[in-house]
Amino acid sequence: KVKIDTIWTSDPPNIEGVSSQTTLFFSLKPNTLSAGNTYRFTASVSSVLEGASTLGFSSIAFFVTVQEEPLSVYIKGGLQRTISVISQPQTLSFTASLATSGLSPPPAVTYRWSIQNGTGAYLLSQNDRKRLSISTSQLQLPASSSTSSVFTVSVSVSRNSSGATGSSNATQILEIVTSGEVPEVRVKRRMRSKAGGASAAPTEKLDIKNSIRLEASVDWKSETFVESRNVSWICTSGNMDLALSQQHSSQFSSRNYLVLPSGLLLPGLTYTFRVLAKSPASNFYGKAEINVITNRAPRLGSCSLAPTSGVALQTMFAFSCVGWSDEDLPLTYQWQAKTTTTGKGYFDLCAPRRMGSFETKLGGSGDSSSTSSSSTVNLRARIVDSLGAAAVIEMTASVSQPTTLALVEEKTHLGELLEQGDTETFASEFAGVISYLEV
């Protein structure tokens, strides 16, 4: 009997769990590797005849680079806010938040705040700006009631770890009025695709296939004229007229929320929505703005198949996708096939992969009603960006059934594929065998 021994090693060598791996399959627990680092793993495989010396030995090394999640900061409340300061000075509060995927622990960061007036002049001294280089996301400043003003509040965030790269910036326009009570408005957005309708960061690109809900919270500053309070929504970016949209009636634009149904927005655009809250006590408007950025699927590429005809379970078909471009990398590629017998959609020929090429054998369509010696297999390629937007390219192959199929040998071959861990080839060829038997 021949025994296969596998030894895994790593560089650096102190990665937990590597030395305990003794099979051909390699796995590590989540958060074992650190973002921003590159690791080298080596698999050493030897075959040993029982009771004798080593028959053969081979090793292979590969590198794994763990990318840092991009920093994306935003100031809660929207792109623009209006605050009323009438008599006594009050405290202005600002909260910055990081938009993360939740796939890795939040990084340790430093927040740096600054405030400018309408002419771009800094309102804080250099010492004050240095003092505002703090490790917390909260900023509180006194507001004077002397004059009405417009300010730009900015925050930048950077990682604390040594050698870390990447930063992010966000701004909020703050209008302070002193002529009357103005409702203070904050706005945020939620995505129906997120669990429980969780809040989505303003910097996050959204999938147009999901509905989007914008929500406004209003501090009316007065308990009078409750029945006369008015909230309205407009799109200030010029690429949508809510009044003309058939998906919106007056009841939607007069509430504290605005629902944008799936398919309403176009991909690859930025929409700016403003919510206005009119105070019945002072007739002043409070307002807040927020961006909705829609994701766009990968584009500019092409996909091909060669050859376009062959024999089921014998011909090797080569799929290729080249030239695809997208802002949200990395891209993944996946190929799928559909049989005419089930009509239940596509099954995967392979798992999503970074490489834009793939080879496999195909089964026939399994269409027993066809009188032709060959059948058409419907295929498609899916090119998906890191945020989930997909481009789909459809293609077909003409596949004829083999005149004979050695089922015993094919069963042995499928078993070998499973032992080798090649589940992709197994799934494709198993489907081909089923297709042959159906005919």
Verbal overview:
Helices cover 9% and strands 43% of the residues. By secondary structure, the chain is mainly beta. The strands form 6 sheets. Strands 5, 7, 8, 10, 11, 14, 16, 18 and 19 form a 9-stranded mixed β-sheet that branches. Helix 3 (407-419) runs antiparallel to helix 4.
Topology:
Layout: E1 2-11, E2 38-49, E3 54-65, E4 73-75, E5 80-84, E6 90-98, E7 109-116, H1 126-131, E8 133-134, E9 138-143, E10 149-159, E11 167-177, E12 184-191, E13 199-200, E14 205-206, E15 212-219, E16 230-235, H2 250-253, E17 257-260, E18 270-278, E19 285-294, E20 302-306, E21 309-311, E22 316-322, E23 332-338, E24 347-348, E25 357-361, E26 374-384, E27 390-400, H3 407-419, H4 423-438
Parallel strand pairs: 5-11, 14-19, 21-27
Antiparallel strand pairs: 1-2, 2-3, 4-6, 5-19, 6-9, 7-8, 7-10, 10-11, 12-13, 12-15, 15-17, 16-18, 18-19, 20-22, 22-25, 23-24, 23-26, 26-27
Helix pairs in contact: 3-4
